[in-house]
Amino acid sequence: MTQHYETIVIGAGVIGSSIAYHLSRRGRRVLLLEQETIACKASSAAAGMLGAQSELKADGSPLFELAKESRAMFPDLADDLKMYSGMDISLKQQGIYKIARNEEEKRELRHYGELQRQSGQNAEWLEAEELQIREPAVSSQLTGGLFLPDDGQVSAPDLSRAFALSAIELGTTLKEYTKVQSLLIKGDSISGVSTNGGEYQANEVVIACGAWSEEVLGEALDTYPVKGECFSVNTKRNLISGTLFSKDCYIVPKSGGRLVVGATEQPGTYDETVTLGGVFPLIKEAIRLLPELAYAEWESAWTGLRPQTRNETPVLGPHPDYRNLFLATGHYRNGILLSPITGKLIADMIEGTPVPEQWITTATTINQGGVL
Question: What is the DSSP string of 246-283?
Fold first, then answer.
């Protein structure tokens, strides 16, 4: 017998799990399908930065406004997810330093900071001496840094799992190791999905499979994977309090002296192997920023496949041809940051709640990667 749900969400990474969470909080009967396990791909590979300002220009663009709004959701979200799932997502709001290594980068970052301030954001330029007072372990050879106090970080794997477990607590049904083989098309709508575990019907279907969304949809989205290699080390003491972010790497401090360093960018491949050619430049740059890392204890290295679009903005909204099919992918390096607002917006769209038009993929742009 075919089972029926109000909404089927395909993909139990951070985006799909956030959508399931927001829908289940509203009392909807949700089925969350995952071909492997919760947060098994990019969602667990991410360093967890909430870099609305460090990653994006304060230019008033829809994507920047979306990122700011999502960042602001995290304090309340952390409390709610802990209440439902019992998990602490390790929200840390200790800022991000964009590092200048030479005079040219210093000029660029000072200008970048001025633009941030003009748009009403907090941004503070620190000369090299001031940076070392704030973060004594950083290299004395740096030329300064732009401190963005409102950016922060979470544990990406814990956030992803907390979304999924909270959704389950609120009534969502999760089926892992369940691969969607095809969408069930009925006229101008999707009636459900066919999987290796049988067929499931639904009023709406959401595709949130990251770099694999195009494969599930069965048509071009003009998206592509970008491989990123990262590694982690352990130190005997906490070397930094805020995240260091240069043009060639980032260093994210976690609890207990653990540091996550990333990330390479290799577009157009689904290869998930870790290579010496990828990790070695990261090691070299990380030690340049933080010399004591040379004595850190190696922990592990890994890869993640980020979903990117040709115009570098997410696909977020209804499919142009099927009235009850929704897409949420292409978040690239900002999937963790944008996960709360993405879940809320897709839930709003499904329920018919008005959503700012500039935040929705339109029928004329879906095959160009979507625009916000």
Answer: -SS-EEEE-GGGEEEEE---EET-------HHHHHHHH
Is there a contact between 313 and 370 (Cβ–Cβ < 8 Å)? yes
CB 262 within 8 A of CB 230: yes
**Angle at 215 (CA atoms; ends 209, 216), nearest 5 degrees:** 60
Q: Specify whether the CB–CB gap between 113 and 123 falls below 8 A.
A: yes
Spacing of C-alpha 109 from chain mean position: 24
Sequence-separated (6 or more) residues with CB below 8 Å from residue 322: 185, 188, 189, 190
What is the distance between the alpha carbons of residues 110 and 116, in angstroms, rounded to a whole number? 10
Residue holding tokens 């040219």? 104
The count of residues in the chain is 372
Strand partners, 267: 226
Contact by Cβ (8 Å): 341, 70: yes
pLDDT tens sequence across 184-230: 999 999 999 999 999 999 999 999 999 999 999 988 888 899 999 99
- Residue 369: its pLDDT value, please? 38
**Reported pTM:** 0.95
Cis-peptide into 263, omega within 30 deg:
yes
Q: How many angstroms separate the Cα of 291 from the Cα of each of 34, 95, 238, 286?
A: 42, 21, 13, 8
> What digits encode the pLDDT tens for the residues 231-256?
999 999 999 999 999 999 999 999 99
Neighbouring CB atoms inside 10 A of 34's CB total 25
